[in-house]
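Complex record, two chains
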Amino acid sequence: MDRRIRVLIGKPGLDGHDRGAKIITRALRDAGMEVIYTGIRQTPDQIAQAAIQEAVDIIGLSSLSGAHGVLFPKVVEILRKRGAGDILVFGGGIIPNDDIPKLKKAGIKAIFQPGTSTEDIVTFIRANVKNT
Amino acid sequence: MNKTDDKRKFMTSSGIEVKSCYTQGDLEAFGFDPDRDLGYPGQYPYTRGIDPEMYRNNPWVMGQYAGFGTAEAANERFKFILSQGATGFSLALDLPTQLGYDSDHPLSQGEVGKIGVAIDSLKDMEMIFDGIRLDRVKHIRTTANAIGPVALAMFIALCEKQEADPGQTQIIIQNDVLKEFVARGTQIFPPRPSLEFAVDAIEYSAKRFPNWQPLMVSGYHYRDAGANAVQEVAFTFANAIAYIELALKRGVAIDDIAPMIRVHFGAHMDLFEEVAKLRASRRMWAEMMNNYGAKKAESLLFRHHSGTIGGTLVAQQPLLNIARVTIEALSAILGGSQSLRTSSYDEAYAIPTEEAEMIAIRTQQVIAYESGITRTVDPLAGSYYVETLTNEIETRVKKYLKKIDEMGGAVAAIENGFIEREIADHSYQSQMEIQNGSRVVVGLNRFTSREEVKIRTFKVKASTEKKQIQSLKRLRKERDNRAVRERLGDLRKAAGEKTNLVEPILAAVKAYATVQEICDVIREVAGEYRSMPGAV
């Protein structure tokens, strides 16, 4: 079955810095995936809703304002509540090392910090979406 | 660059091709005329600097960006900064404040006090400035953009409360809402009403507070969003033109508008191109103001603040960022900036720690007092290479400006996605160059080391949000709510009549209406920006 991987890139919260989100969107598209970018300023609810509606395999969340600790787990929580816990979630942005274990425990599959190559994200998505 | 590959083209970060050697012939090729193109420092066209003596009299203003948490925490921090001899500071606002949401709005969750201080009402301003008289602080900058006129009203109200002399302080409000639609993302209303609202602050200040600066047009955020040097200048100037022309249309004189404008640029890694960028900008700005018919000399001066670009900082081997910031800061000073903010080496991880912030300030002091580059004005003038680059940047910026003008100006170029697309293209291209190794970033794609980074990061107190919401709830109970409703009613009426809104906002602010209550009234009348999938 050669279905293209579907990805939603979301910007939860009020942070408007989306250079990274845009670069990831384009790089994943260039890698042959179907990518939807929500635009800035989305609530966790809107992101989960869009992901379910668009039947994506995986969600990438980006935040640079320090609100990741509240917002990323919330997206996972809403997905689970709506029976869409099979949609994987990863995140990126200005995220201190100390916060990563907590985020992973809350169900975020991976965190990509500044300097990550888009190729690493492509590899991560291919490996994880195929396995599920 | 790869030395063995002789056929390879050498390019600046803006894609200007660079030759192996520059000579007099290159200057002659574009008709370089030092009298016309450079003049002397402090003289038209100000290519060499806006002051004849520049840093020989005084070094630039070393202004850092700070403020976080609650009003009490910010008050303590600012008192500390002032006790250390600082003459001014910047008041960073948290995102809910910048976006016109109260601290207890559902969208504010997790963001209160995070990247700046939370201001729900004048009460918070009174607390932030408790024991700090406005007329004893020389200048205060804020990142209020979409809420520019609300911030202006807050400072006016505070001045009145403290019985401080507004002529003795300088309030600098960023108020550059147009760039928010492309780069920074704190727009509240659609572009056209946003522009009108921003110009309300300019028009009002021109009449009442001519020494304040109600506009800081900012290319910095375009640059941090991935724009190159030419795009940064072109898109910033296009926005400046939009503000100026609307203010002129409202009958404000160019000589009243121009001296109130400051420009905020990024300082990037490409040293000579950055110097050329600032020199070309001064020349173009003076020419532009001259063409608007400015008569006063101060109207022609391109006053600019530089900030080293956060996006060039790398998480791997973070101490190397100190070297990067030094080079970027050098470019700003060799280029003649009036003020400079330097980044902290740990910014790729979190809000800076005090130690990292100290190194950032000390870096500026080393440049100012040890390097000797401040001894003479515009030391790179006459360099075949730098003059050629200066000319080339001017030519390319003017080409962009013509194109934007033909589209109908900056607002049209924002609405049709042109500016966003141009920046996104360049940003993606740079990232791909880093990934394929043609653009070297030390520690990231070359000379990497495997050591795990151990870095101490700064954290905002978890109790901040709760405390802020408690005091907001107390305010709503204690204030005269009938007066608030009346003042908001007056504001609604003024917004419907499309008159200048600063006066009615000031009345609402004094009645302790919240930033959100004020913005909600304008949202009803002007409409609200709706997030759309961006150009990617």
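Note: The radius of gyration of chain B is 23 Å.
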